[in-house]
Amino acid sequence: MSARVCALLSVASLIACGGPAADVPPSSSPAAPSSTVEVTAPSSSASVAEPVADAGVEAARPSSKPEPSAVAETEQKLAIGRTAPRHHAKVLDGAPRPSKLAPGNYMCRIDAMYKLRPCTVTRDERGFTWLETPDSLLGLKGVIYDEGGGLVFDGTTAEERPFGCFSCQEHCTTDPASCACVELLPDASRECLARPIVARLTKKGSSWVGSLPYKTYYNHYEGEGAARHVTSWDTKDHTFLVEVAPAPAAKKPARP
Predict the structure, then answer these.
(1) I need a surface site. Which of 16, 59, 129, 240 has the fewest CB within 10 A?
(2) What share of the chain is helix, strand, coil (3-state, %, to 5)?
(3) Which phi and psi (to 5°) does residue 194 adopt?
């Protein structure tokens, strides 16, 4: 076959004729793009070509949605404050106990660091007297009855996430990456919510004053550095002042 004929043939035919492919001028119309690049045998001086995406096709992105198991775990943690069992005073299983504290509006505080704030005393249809302190260091609700010359309050925390039963704010459980704290172990929170809150009060002037033993819960860590992790929980004992005082008398309207 003559060299003139070979020049008129395709690149593949030219190679078959023994002519150098580099001598053939490039085509004016490029070949259609392929979704993959042909891979040749690797050598010590050349890297292996990798597949490339077709033009106009966006590479797959990892999903930002949390795994179903993670969502379920978060919901369970958030529900602890609503679903965990709370203390039930045994005195409620018997006959109603009398109370020197008459139903009405009072001023209460839990801990000497807090000011007196509004609280209420009510009497239910069975005859039990209840004290509720919704706005203080601790929101408490329980039965209050006479014992000896004083009063006994036997109740529980009235808040979903009371002081000492959780390590973090609620939004930290929903989005752990937004906080630096580590939430208390769920079983520790359940134990904290289930324990009785008992205070004994005596009359001082026009008020009833006593002390409230209280435990706060926190995580127990083991290990050092990157290996440090939560293994269980510990508690710390506190004693808070409890005071129930008469509400101030309503001011008389000013005369016109």
Answers:
(1) 59
(2) 20, 30, 45
(3) -85, -15
DSSP run (H or E) holding 188: helix 186-194
Distance CA 227, CA 224 (A): 5
Q: Which pLDDT tens digit goes with each residue over 73-108?
A: 667 777 898 889 999 999 999 999 999 999 999 999
The residue with greater pLDDT, 105 or 31, is 105
In the numeric block, the tokens 């993670």 are attached to: 70
Query: Closest Cα to residue 142, out of 151, 129, 127?
Result: 129
Bridge partner list, 142: 131, 155
What tens digit of pLDDT does each residue of 167-190 get? 888 888 778 788 888 889 999 999
pLDDT at 173: 75
Q: 245 with 143: CB under 8 angstroms? A: no
| Residue 152 β-bridge partners | 145, 200
Residues 207 and 243: beta-carbon distance below 8 Å:
yes
From CA 177, how far away is CA 222, in angstroms rounded?
22
Please state, in angstroms and as integers, the Cα–Cα distance from residue 240 to each residue in 30, 82, 90, 128, 162, following that order: 85, 25, 23, 25, 15
What three-state secondary structure class fits 148?
Answer: coil
Neighbouring C-beta atoms of residue 98, cutoff 10 Å: 10
* Of the candidates 31, 7, 34, 4, the residue with the CA atom closest to the CA atom of residue 21: 7
Reported confidence tier of residue 134, pLDDT bands at 50, 70, 90? confident
What CA–CA distance (Å, rounded) separates 75 from 67?
13
